[in-house]
Amino acid sequence: MLDVGDDAPEVTAPMATPEAAANTERGSYTSGDVSEFSLADALDDGPVVLAFYPGIYSRTCTQELCELRDWKADLAEADAPLYGVSADTPWSLLAFIDEYDLQYPLVSGFNNSIIADFGVRREESIVAGIANRAVFVVAPDGTVSYTWLATEPLTFPDTDEVEAAVAEATR
Fold this sequence. Notes:
Blueprint: E1 12-16, H1 18-23, E2 35-38, H2 39-43, E3 48-52, H3 59-77, E4 82-86, H4 90-100, E5 106-108, H5 114-117, E6 134-138, E7 144-149, H6 159-169
InterPro entries: AhpC/TSA (IPR000866), Thioredoxin-like_sf (IPR036249), Thioredoxin_domain (IPR013766), Tpx_Peroxidase_subfamily (IPR050455)
Region (Disordered): 1-29
Domain Thioredoxin: 2-171
């Protein structure tokens, strides 16, 4: 797992956005509804929060993503975009955004290295290849300024710590 002070990898990956989910009927998504996420481009506007999670529609991940949805308004005041990241396909991410009214994008680690590049890819188990639950704040200069890794099921990051890390990264 990357640590504070490490350079974040240059990554691009498919991304599902709230706008695309709202503009297309669920079940009718095509590759035209999928955007491209570029960490370098996202950092042009300031720090970025990346919340890695194992997979949508699981009990714990659904709870976490909805808590992040509710917390996002506070983070918006800190002026840092939030991106969820999992191994799910972009089309299933679009359906999840639509169903749970998420107002932040979800990045697909399907068929690319973003999860491994941040060092949170689960290597062993029946579900090898999914992401471990983790949060990173990446400063505008591309360095990791905050990390959190779940060590127990049903544990979530302290959003006050994340907000403080975002505030520090904008200085």
